[in-house]
Design brief:
By secondary structure, the protein is an alpha+beta fold. It has a single domain, classed as Beta Barrel (M1 Pyruvate Kinase, Domain 3), CATH 2.40.33.20. Helix content is 12%, strand content 27%. It has 3 helices and 15 strands. Strands 2-1-10-9-13-12-11-15 form an 8-stranded mixed sheet. A 3-stranded antiparallel sheet has the order 4-3-14, with no helix packed on it. A two-stranded antiparallel ribbon has the order 5-8. The radius of gyration is 17 Å and the shape is globular.
Length: 248
């Protein structure tokens, strides 16, 4: 039976994750406080996601490799949860090309992820190991910036959960039902090394060759550069390390 081996939350879009033992999930944003904050370098309405959402409105790994190793600092909790002001000032001084950037806080009303909807991202660790064998090198799973790491599932089996876009198949994660919506189509972000903050691997090219050999394409755009799947939260709840995942 597949189960949760790792849980991650990314409060600041583009920055490194926070490892958790459990995550609160809901039908509004998916993972609570995940991608709640973002640094925006194009002026716009800070009360909602960018119009016709474009990740390049924001400072992220796909345009700023150094973000991959940023470990944001936070203060407060609940309604008072926020980025530490001194950290924001320091980050702006270090990212001088984005010195005029704005801090956006969704306050939990929406999320600032790349795709809309209350999604949770899943990485099958067996598929990652197969990719490592294909590439002939170790690959840090943090490159893929996923919420849930799965163990005890055969490599590539997660793609059998995706029957179209939007998908219709459901999984039960602990006591939370989710609809498997799509395979995760990747951008340049996984090129960035989480340890060094440098682009040191052409992950898009690697994934294209890796998945093409299995003759797999994402249901949404028909691309081979995929790693992982998205689940859309259907009921509020909590997921924990060790929870079993059942295909319904």
């Amino acid at each position: 039976m597949p189960r949760i081996a790792d849980l991650r939350r990314f409060p600041l879009k583009g920055a490194a994750s926070i490892a958790e033992r459990q995550l609160s999930v809901n039908t509004v944003v998916g993972v609570a406080d995940d991608r709640r904050f973002a640094l925006r370098h194009r002026p716009g309405d800070l009360t909602r996601r960018a119009e016709n959402y474009n990740k390049f409105d924001y400072v992220v790994c796909a345009n700023t490799s150094a973000m991959a190793r940023e470990r944001a600092r936070f203060v407060g909790d609940g309604a008072d949860y926020r980025l530490e002001p001194a950290y924001v000032t320091d980050l702006k001084s270090r990212l001088q090309s984005f010195s005029d950037m704005q801090l956006q806080d969704s306050h939990g009303a929406y999320h600032l992820g790349d795709t809309g909807g209350p999604q949770v991202s899943f990485l099958n660790l067996a598929t990652l190991r197969a990719l490592e064998e294909f590439a002939g090198t170790e690959i840090n799973p943090d490159r893929f910036r996923m919420n849930v790491g799965i163990e005890d599932l055969p490599a590539f089996a997660e793609y059998n959960w995706v029957d179209g876009f939007p998908g219709t198949r459901e999984i039960l994660v602990g006591k939370v039902r989710m609809r498997v919506d799509d395979a995760c189509e990747r951008c340049k972000a996984p090129h960035a090394n989480p340890a060094t903050g440098e682009y040191d691997m052409n992950m898009l090219a690697l994934l294209m060759e890796f998945m093409a050999r299995r003759d797999y394409r994402s249901p949404h755009r028909g691309v081979t550069s995929v790693m992982g799947v998205f689940g859309v939260v259907l009921n509020d709840g909590v997921i924990n390390i060790g929870d079993e995942i059942t295909l319904l």
